């Protein structure tokens, strides 16, 4: 089979390419460059040039074809511009999820098909399974990686059946130490390279500096809300999931000014660093932002009630099912395991399908439910669906 591997210059994609060649496939390495600007990039993070050099070294070692493609225009339009737009609205996007849906398994996939690819492989720690439905049609499941410490299925939570049809995840059944061992045994240049961090294809950034490419700094006030504020007292029926999904509506009258900031859109719920306010027994955390009034609300301590909510809401047009045959009908309720951020342990919850979308009610209140992030729900190891958190 002719397989194009997305060689990123990291150890995971390198071993994926090695395994596919060892299995007898015709393997082609394709490196994509998606970002040129270094504004806000932290010194010491591996630039794209180093990534390409390592990818070429791996391709040479494995004696496979190597190609390069620049997808930066599409990446800026589909991922980075979306990021700026979401932050401007006071929401916190997840560019890695968007990158996989819009770039790696869309634009990159189309480039791979131009090279005659029958399948496209990546170094993600997740698995793919196919089965025949009752109608005789082939369906595809997305499963968590066998290495639960490295499982990356969450980042692929927006993939479609058509995208999964082409996907291969050669290291999905492996543990990270085994991947490193194989890379060293095969003398791959990436064997000891550190895993990439930060924004997909951009790297580690000083977020406010990065965002100031399009979002201007604007001084505003930081207000502290005390934990016993009446705003955190729910006075309605505990079964009213729609009311429980409402975020806490804070105003400057609910607390006192304790500092200033340079733009509410640079902050996200649950954030601790970057406030520049010290002298506290416990750390201060962002519990809400108001980009219209340019106010950041904070609370002291990790157990502050403003950090926790029981229900989140996803709008109908933001609900995505990996397999449409699994979708819920209006009025239906199901139990799933859910996560609202990468590496968060799965949480027990009930999904409620309503005319205005999906509500997820957790068995235990969740810390830092953040608009713009993705919630993903699982049935066992199978990632069933996901959606952008509205509130």
Total discrete domains: 3
User: pLDDT under 50 segments (min length 5)?
Assistant: none
CATH topology of the largest domain: Rossmann fold
How many strands in all? 18
Q: What is the makeup of the main sheet?
A: 9 strands, antiparallel
By CATH's scheme, which homologous superfamily of the largest domain applies?
Answer: HUPs
Helix and strand element order: EHEHEHHEEEHEHHEHEEEEEEEEEE
What does this molecule look like?
This protein has 391 residues and is α/β, with parallel strands linked by helices. The protein folds into three domains: 2-210, HUPs (Rossmann fold); 214-307, SH3 type barrels; 308-388, Elongation Factor Tu (Ef-tu), domain 3, CATH 2.40.30. Helix content is 23%, strand content 28%. It is built from eight helices and 18 strands. The chain has helices at residues 11-22, 48-62, 72-88, 95-114, 161-166, 176-185, 207-211, 241-244, and strands at residues 2-6, 26-33, 65-70, 119-121, 126-132, 138-144, 167-168, 220-224, 256-261, 284-290, 295-300, 308-314, 319-321, 333-339, 347-354, 357-367, 374-379, 382-388. Strands 5, 6, 12, 13, 14, 15, 16, 17 and 18 form a nine-stranded antiparallel β-sheet that branches. The protein has a five-stranded parallel β-sheet with strand order 3-2-1-4-7, with helices on both faces. Helix 1 (11-22) runs parallel beside helix 2 (48-62) and helix 1 packs across helix 6 (176-185). The N and C termini lie far apart (45 Å). 42% of the residues are buried.
């Amino acid at each position: 089979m002719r397989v194009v591997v997305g060689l990123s210059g990291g150890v995971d994609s390198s071993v994926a390419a090695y395994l596919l060649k060892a299995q007898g496939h015709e393997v082609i390495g394709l490196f994509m460059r998606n970002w040129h600007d270094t504004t806000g990039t932290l010194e010491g993070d591996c630039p794209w040039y180093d990534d390409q050099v390592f990818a070429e070294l791996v391709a040479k070692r494995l004696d496979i074809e190597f190609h390069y493609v620049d997808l930066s225009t599409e990446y800026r339009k589909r991922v980075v511009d979306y990021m700026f737009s979401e932050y401007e609205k006071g929401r916190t996007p997840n560019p890695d999820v968007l990158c996989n849906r819009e770039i790696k398994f869309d634009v990159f996939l189309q480039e791979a098909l131009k090279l005659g690819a029958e399948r496209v492989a990546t170094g993600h720690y997740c698995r793919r399974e196919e089965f025949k439905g009752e109608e005789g049609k082939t369906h595809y499941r997305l499963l968590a990686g066998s290495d639960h410490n490295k499982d990356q299925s969450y980042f692929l939570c927006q993939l479609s059946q058509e995208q999964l049809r082409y996907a291969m995840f050669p290291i999905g059944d492996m543990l990270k130490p085994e991947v490193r061992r194989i890379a060293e045994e095969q003398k791959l240049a990436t064997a000891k390279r550190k895993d990439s961090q930060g924004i997909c294809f951009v790297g580690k950034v000083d977020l406010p500096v990065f965002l100031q490419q399009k979002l201007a700094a604007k001084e505003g006030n930081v207000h502290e809300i005390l934990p016993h504020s009446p705003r955190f007292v729910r006075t309605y029926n505990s079964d009213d999931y729609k009311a429980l999904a409402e975020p806490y509506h804070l105003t400057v009258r609910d607390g006192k000014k304790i500092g200033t900031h340079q733009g509410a859109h640079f902050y996200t719920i649950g954030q601790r660093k970057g406030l520049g306010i010290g002298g506290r027994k416990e750390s201060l955390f962002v519990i809400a932002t108001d980009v219209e009034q340019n106010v950041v609300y904070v609370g002291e301590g990790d157990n502050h009630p403003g950090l926790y909510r029981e229900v989140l809401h996803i709008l109908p047009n933001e609900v995505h099912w990996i397999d449409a045959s699994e979708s819920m009908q209006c009025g239906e309720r199901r139990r799933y395991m859910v996560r609202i951020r990468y590496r968060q342990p799965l949480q027990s919850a009930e999904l409620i399908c309503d005319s205005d979308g999906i509500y997820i009610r957790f068995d235990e209140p969740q810390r830092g439910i953040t608009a713009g992030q993705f919630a993903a729900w699982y049935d066992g190891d199978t990632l069933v669906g996901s959606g952008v958190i509205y509130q």
